[in-house]
Design brief:
Helix content of chain A: 25-40%
Strand order of the largest sheet of chain B: 3-2-4-5-7-6
Number of helices of chain B: 21
Number of strands of chain A: 9
Largest sheet of chain A: 5 strands, antiparallel
Largest interface: A-B, 20 and 19 residues
Helix content of chain B: 25-40%
Shape of chain A: elongated
Oligomer: heterodimer
Number of strands of chain B: 20
Structural class of chain B: alpha/beta
Distance between the termini of chain A: 28 Å
Shape of chain B: globular
Strand content of chain A: 35-45%
Number of helices of chain A: 4
């Protein structure tokens, strides 16, 4: 099953490679990984999407917790949560296609953020599923470039991941 | 007053109470060596290869429970140390390894003797640090010792660029250090302990399975007491030998691939398995699908990640083995319930039947020296009191089977990584830590050659180690597998052109002996061990065809042993 694991870690050189190294050394899957500083500059927050059996995911969280740089972590799938991913997608947009793409973007609540005579660049935010659906809705030959941020997530309600 | 980084380094080690620093100088650590030259708080031991420095520090750590400390230079100094670091990591041994690094402005420039030490060692350390500012040096060293020695111990690498050792800072070495991201468990959960006791007392066919964690946690005493109070059979892993007296009748010896029949059959047939400071290694479990099919499993371990990693357990207890066992003893004393003596009697009867198979028997009438016989005599001649280090292979298994360790910290071997070349330098560390004790290194002609240069170090420091070289002229364990599983195609397992070990030992200034007949084994051992102040290299020419039995073949269950 798919899991989203959020990690607060010491904002130190090499911390990212410890996590990446752990995953490759132990053969765990990584679907996406994002990392950025937090409001507390001594900490960075990483969001990692992985999948595996319950036993494997339990080992993953234990092994992550064992890393000395990891301060705290939370498996978002343990409770209600919100996940978001952002995609920038550059599309060939000419003639009638321009209208069609604009309409599709509206349906997915995307925004056109850059325009030329032949190209639209659209920003879409949502769950990974939603982004997948948007890509699927576009004629493949119209897609020039796709870039996705990877998933970030946060727990719903009072629950929070903080030191 | 401000001190240079090099002086701070030396002061930190002195304040940490370090006795021995095992190392080898080089360009990046010259400032440090200059500072070492001008101090007398602790001793520096000059090895002949950095791998040996880490193994020696490791032997020191295993035999004392204190951290081993190493200093090597950048680049090849660091890479040579990696094997020893990985060895310590796999067996959870506390080491602090300092590696020199090129000056900070040169890092990343492919400078002379530059290597990314933090990157290279990352997968085989508990943690590592790169010190970029001399003001962080002392606190980082403190953190390194703290991380290495607490929780589940392990090696920590501190990489120090050369310019940092020249820069100046004021010196303050903190007594204590805390890290928000590292808080090892100090107590097992009382409810889990109670639950475990209930399950243990309800057992009809209980089995205690204990590992290196008992020794690391210094928990031999409470383990022995608990085992005796319960009256249950106990088996030790390769790493756990000596935690419970091997000569006691409740002890079934070692378990696993080359463990005893009674231990493995006891494991396979038990209904409650009490795993203590052991990690369900594949050499212990055999095929996990067939492992302890009828048992409820209790597992005590300091490392939550060890729990249910290989085998799903029913009652996990995360905590220091020592504290948990003491707590268990307390709960047990207060409990009205007692072990089921009737069931236990029947269980012991069954175990004694297995024990009567005498699975370690071997041919005593051979004209050739049997390696098992050498180890039996070694045990007798040393009165079972020696510190025994070993390398890796057949001799290691025979030593584990035939030398009965009654005390912890006496059996020093590379269990997890299986590092050939470990035994001899490890013995140096043990001998430094225990100058008055007898230290024997059981090895083979393959393993000993991997770190044989250390005979020079032994000469320099007058280390009277006794080397028991079980020389069968082939890489015995490789040969054994080739005989069993590769139809006797002995690919590269025979060495030609072995050195004359007697002359070799003599050329280093030691005593060499070659023993070729069974009837000379005992007298040679007596003669050698009587030489209290000399290193003696005993080259025993042993039976090449001898194999280690019993054996659980790969993929088999613990009840599917090959006996002789």
């Amino acid at each position: 099953m798919r899991h989203i694991i959020s990690i607060l870690m010491e904002n130190e050189a090499g911390a990212l490679s410890r996590v990446a190294g752990l995953f490759s050394a132990r053969g765990y899957n990584i679907e996406s990984l994002t990392v950025a500083p937090t409001e507390d500059e001594s900490l960075s927050r990483m969001t990692l999407v992985t999948w595996g059996t319950e036993e494997v995911v339990e080992q993953i969280t234990k092994q992550l917790n064992k890393l000395i740089d990891v301060v705290k972590l939370m498996d978002m799938y343990e409770g209600p949560h919100i996940e978001r991913e952002m995609m920038l997608i550059k599309l060939r947009a000419v003639n009638a296609g321009r209208q069609e793409i604009k309409r599709l973007a509206d349906i997915f609540r995307g925004r056109v953020i850059d325009v030329t005579d032949t190209v639209y660049t659209i920003e879409v935010t949502g769950t990974s599923d939603k982004l997948d659906a948007f890509v699927k809705a576009i004629t493949p030959t119209d897609i020039i470039e796709v870039v996705r941020s990877g998933v970030t997530g946060i727990a719903r309600g009072e629950k929070s991941l903080r030191v | 007053m401000e001190l240079t980084g090099a002086d701070i380094f030396v002061r930190c080690l002195a304040d940490e109470g370090v006795e021995y620093l095992f190392g080898y100088p080089g360009g990046a650590v010259l400032h440090i060596y200059d500072a070492l030259y001008q101090q007398d708080k602790f001793k520096h031991v000059l090895v002949r290869h950095e791998q040996a420095a880490t193994h020696a520090a490791d032997g020191y750590a295993r035999s004392t429970g204190k951290p081993g400390v190493v200093l090597v230079t950048s680049g090849p100094g660091a890479t040579n140390a990696v094997t020893g670091i990985a060895t310590a990591y796999m067996d959870s041994i506390p080491l602090v390894v300092f590696t020199g690094q090129v000056p900070t402005p040169l890092i990343g420039n492919d400078a002379f003797q530059e290597v990314d030490s933090v990157g290279i060692t990352r997968p085989c350390v508990k943690h590592n640090f790169l010190v970029k500012d001399v003001n962080d040096l002392a606190i980082t060293i403190k953190k390194a010792f703290y991380v290495a020695t607490t929780g589940r111990p392990g090696p920590v690498v501190v990489d120090i660029p050369k310019d940092v050792t020249a820069q100046k800072a004021s010196y303050h070495y903190p007594k204590r250090v805390s890290m928000r991201s590292y808080n090892p468990v100090t107590k097992g959960h009382p409810r889990q302990i109670k639950k475990a006791i209930d399950l243990m007392l309800a057992a009809k066919r209980p089995m205690l399975y204990t590992g290196g964690g008992v020794i690391l946690s210094n928990a031999s005493r409470p383990l022995t007491e608990l085992t005796r109070v319960l009256g249950y059979p106990i088996t030790n892993t390769l790493m756990g030998l000596g935690a419970y007296p091997a000569t006691d009748k409740q002890c079934l010896g070692m378990l696993g691939m080359h463990g005893t029949y009674e231990a493995n059959m006891g494991m396979h047939n038990c209904d409650v398995l009490i795993a203590i400071g052991a990690r369900f290694d594949d050499r212990v479990t055999g095929n996990v699908e067939k492992f302890c099919p009828t048992a409820k499993i209790i597992h005590i371990d300091i490392d939550p990640a060890s729990i249910s990693k290989n085998v799903k357990v029913d009652v996990p207890i995360v905590g220091p083995v020592d504290q948990v066992l003491r707590e268990m003893l307390k709960v047990l004393k207060e409990s009205k319930q007692k072990p089921d003596t009737t069931a236990l009697k029947a269980w012991w009867k069954q175990i004694e039947e297995w024990r009567a198979m005498d699975c370690l028997k071997y041919d005593h009438d051979s004209d050739l020296i049997k390696p098992q016989y050498v180890l039996e005599r070694l045990y007798e001649v040393t009165g079972g009191k020696a510190y025994v280090t070993s390398d890796v292979g057949q001799h290691q298994m025979w030593a584990a089977q035939f030398y009965k360790f009654d005390k912890p910290n006496r059996w020093i071997n590379s269990g997890g990584l299986g590092t050939m070349g470990f035994g001899f330098p490890a013995a140096m560390g043990v001998q430094f830590a225990h100058p008055q004790e007898t230290v024997a290194c059981v090895t083979g002609e393959g393993s000993i050659q991997m770190c044989i240069q250390e005979m020079s170090t032994c000469r320099q420091y007058g280390l009277p180690i006794k080397i028991i070289n079980l020389n069968n002229g082939c890489l015995g364990m490789v040969r054994q597998w080739q005989e069993f599983f590769y139809q006797g195609r002995y690919a590269m397992s025979y060495m030609e052109s072995l050195p004359d070990f007697v002359k070799l030992a003599e050329s280093y200034g030691h005593v060499g002996m070659q023993i070729t007949r069974p009837e000379d084994v005992e007298s040679a051992l007596k003669e050698a061990f009587a030489m209290k102040d000399r290193l003696v290299f005993m080259d025993f020419l042993t039976d090449q065809a001898e194999n280690v039995y019993p054996m659980i073949p790969a993929g088999a269950g613990q009840n599917e042993m090959i006996l002789v």
